[in-house]
Design brief:
This protein is an alpha/beta fold and 187 residues long. The chain is built from 8 helices and 5 strands; from the N terminus they run αααβαβαβαβαβα. The protein has a 5-stranded parallel β-sheet, sandwiched between helices. Its cofactor is adenosylcob(III)alamin. GO terms for molecular function: cobalamin binding; metal ion binding; methylmalonyl-CoA mutase activity.
């Protein structure tokens, strides 16, 4: 059917301003925004996160929430289209020179698609691209994913600000733990 009709390839678009308004008075949110700015000063560009939806998983609401939140915090967000293959995700990540890929999974493809993506990144000479996973992933699969190279796993109920703080730490920023003053932690 794809040969005859083409592939459905909608690309989720982050909505800007929702999280920045909601967290306007939140100290931890401000810490993360400052952390993103520090990474940008150090690297010469904002940290770049690709949000990927691989396989037959057409559930994109959570991925859109994450993309929108990270964009509001200052990350440069690249949203991949729905239904990508791991190879297409790798190609898009390389083309956009991303620092991290957030693989969103709600349809049980996490044990095949995400490890395949990590292997493809290694084959392409880019094992430095951090791969994190989010969505409905059973906790019993967390060790499997970590063993495959996933560096962060965020299930339902994860605090998006803490997820962003964790990604900053993965990218080498000395992000203070929640509750610590940013001025007390060295960059």
């Amino acid at each position: 059917m794809e040969d005859a009709y083409g592939r459905y390839d909608t690309v989720p678009t982050p909505v800007r301003g929702v999280h920045s308004r909601a967290y306007a008075e939140d100290d931890r949110y401000a810490q993360v925004v400052e952390g993103v700015k520090a990474v940008e000063r150090r690297r010469g560009r904002a940290p770049r996160l690709m949000v990927a939806k691989m396989g037959q998983d057409g559930h994109d609401r959570g991925a859109n929430v994450i993309a929108s939140a990270f964009a509001d915090m200052g990350f440069d967000v690249v949203s991949g289209p729905l239904f990508q293959t791991p190879a297409e995700t790798r190609d898009m990540a390389l083309e956009n020179d991303v620092d991290a890929i957030g693989a969103s999974s709600l349809a049980a493809g996490h044990k095949t698609l995400i490890p395949e993506l990590i292997g493809l990144l290694k084959e392409a000479g880019r094992p430095d691209i951090k791969v994190i996973a989010g969505g409905v992933i059973p906790q019993k699969d967390y060790d499997f994913l970590r063993d495959a190279g996933v560096q962060g796993i965020y299930g339902p109920g994860s605090n998006v600000v803490e997820c962003a703080a964790d990604v900053l730490r993965l990218l080498g920023h000395n992000m203070p733990p929640a509750g610590e003053d940013l001025d007390e932690a060295p960059n």
